[in-house]
Amino acid sequence: MRRLALAAAMSLAAFASAAPANAFFQNIMIDPNTRQPMAFQQPTHQPAARPAIPREVVAFAGAYEPGTVVVNTAERRLYFVMGNGQAIRYGIGVGRPGFDWRGTHTISRKAEWPDWRPPVQMLQRRPDLPRFMAGGPDNPLGARAMYLGSSLYRIHGSNEPHTIGQAVSSGCFRMLNDDVVDLYSRVRVGTRVVVL
Which residue among the candidates 45, 105, 162, 172 is catalytic per the annotation? Predict the structure, then answer.
């Protein structure tokens, strides 16, 4: 056994010294049992992607009471009005063409990690969808949902962060899960929501 290990080490040393100085050959080792080359790739460490639309406090001019939620579908931004000329601005995903809407509602219900039951209208368009999906990280409603009046629409989180800033939904407003958790903590049932 000791002879085999010594032979493997010597062949590795000879192979390494004879090999061209390129990255492919620098990462090869010989398996002492099979005497076959083993290639290893160095792990690549990439920094975590920052949200394309960061949450931030911004100047806000509008005749809305503090605590109001203002959704600007053209900007694909949601504002939580703080008063004193300021609001918290969040990036959102909005309804795709034909599913956008305007109006005023109030938050009628709040839910953490909500279950999802696609509405009948959505199931008619997409019969392949499940009839029920329990709340959790894979659920398309994400970490929180705020239901808008008696409508089919919600402000909710998303398990598809790449859709934030896009017009892809069936009329609901999607947010990054971190952002929807933040907004959820600031609003209450009865909060006015203005969709422009």
Answer: 172
